[in-house]
Amino acid sequence: MAAKTLTRAGFSVEFIKGGAEAIPLDDRCADSVLVTFTLCTVSDVVQALAEIRRVLKPDGQLIFCEHGAAPDAAVRRWQDRLNPIWKRISGGCNLNLPIPSLLQQAGFKIRAMDTMYLPGWKPATFNYRGTAALSK
Fold first, then answer.
1. Tally of domains within the chain
2. Looking at the domain assignment, is residue 94 inside a domain?
3. Roughly how many angstroms between the first and final C-alpha of the chain, as a whole number?
């Protein structure tokens, strides 16, 4: 799908095959990394975030938009109950990832973040979007 869209993009893009847990790029080579609705299906989120940290330049930024753990206790209980089944039927997607704490534990400092429920089924729609930088 992306290859078809790129013909209309007006700029060059290089596709790089690889997984999030082993990004085939040099250390400190990326100005920015964009992660959108991806972390929920990565098999090793901690390793993927370590790889993002590795490839970012010291002044680089992580731009993220991910769904995850809801702040409302009732919704969160449903996320926790449904997650084992949900993972099996949705390609490994986790409903209840604690996005902010995962980013911070991986060595990122959140610069800006908005949170909200997107339209739809509440257990799958709590959204985190923002930017983060490498912690010093």
1. 1
2. yes
3. 38
Rounded-to-integer distance, Cα 21 and Cα 16, Å = 14
**CATH number, domain with residue 123:** 3.40.50.150
Strands (E), 4-136: 30-36, 56-67, 108-117, 126-134
**Does any domain span residue 4?**
no
Whole-number Å distance between alpha carbons of 61 and 133: 5
- Per-residue pLDDT at 13: 81
Q: What is the pLDDT of residues 119-129, one digit of tens each?
A: 999 999 999 99
Residues of the chain with pLDDT under 50: none
Q: Which domain holds residue 102?
A: 32-134
Task: Output the pLDDT for position 64.
Answer: 98
